[in-house]
Write a structure and sequence with these properties.
By secondary structure, this protein is an alpha/beta fold. It has two domains: 129 residues, P-loop containing nucleotide triphosphate hydrolases (Rossmann fold); 45 residues. It contains six helices and ten strands, in the order E-H-H-E-H-E-H-H-E-E-E-H-E-E-E-E. A four-stranded parallel beta sheet has the order 2-1-3-4, with helices on one face. Strands 7-8-9-10 form a four-stranded antiparallel beta sheet, with no helix packed on it.
């Protein structure tokens, strides 16, 4: 299941990554395109209706896009943050009760207040609380290579790193 809050999913990229198997894979993929944060919330809160024993992965890309749009117009930041936290709780519960993996991406922002702050996810507090595993992705000098940094694994703070190349077929590990 792919929930595309960024409106960035392209069939061309899917077929490129899926290769010869792409056509047979499509019948196993559910795509959702919420247009508002409210639609996103209602979709996440109704995920139990879509879960079957064959559902292996729920992807939310990016959970903070529509949150950020709504942030510009909302009257109550408290209500908005509560709704995002609630969505994360639903996704965490899904992984625990239905044994379905969830991959959540987030937009990031630069913190300029002090030199050491750097880059962090939008809605950092909520996004750092619920996930049991956190992987941060950093750019590298090579525009086709990203550094994947494991920050938390199964609830325990840890550190692991690898370089990953973005290829026509997806991601490829190039070092440990």
């Amino acid at each position: 299941m792919f929930i595309d809050c960024d409106n960035s999913f392209t069939p061309q990229r899917f077929y490129q990554i899926g290769g010869d198997d792409a056509k047979s894979i499509t019948e196993h993929v559910m795509l959702f395109f919420p247009n508002t944060f409210e639609e996103q919330r209602m979709l996440v809160e109704s995920l139990d209706n879509y879960v079957t024993p064959n559902l292996g992965l729920v992807i939310v890309d990016s959970i903070s896009t529509l949150y950020r749009v709504e942030f510009q117009r909302v009257g109550s930041i408290f209500d908005l943050n509560r709704d995002l936290t609630r969505q994360l709780a639903y996704l965490a519960n899904l992984t625990l009760t239905k044994k379905t993996a969830c991959l959540i991406t987030s937009q990031v922002r630069a913190r300029i207040k002090s030199p050491g702050d750097g880059i962090e996810p939008v809605a950092r507090r909520a996004l750092m609380h619920f996930p049991r595993t956190i992987i941060r992705i950093q750019n590298s000098p090579n525009p086709r290579v990203r550094e994947f940094i494991l920050e938390r694994l199964k609830g325990t703070h840890t550190e692991g790193r690898c370089l990953v190349e973005i290829t026509e077929r997806g991601l490829s590990n190039i070092s440990s």
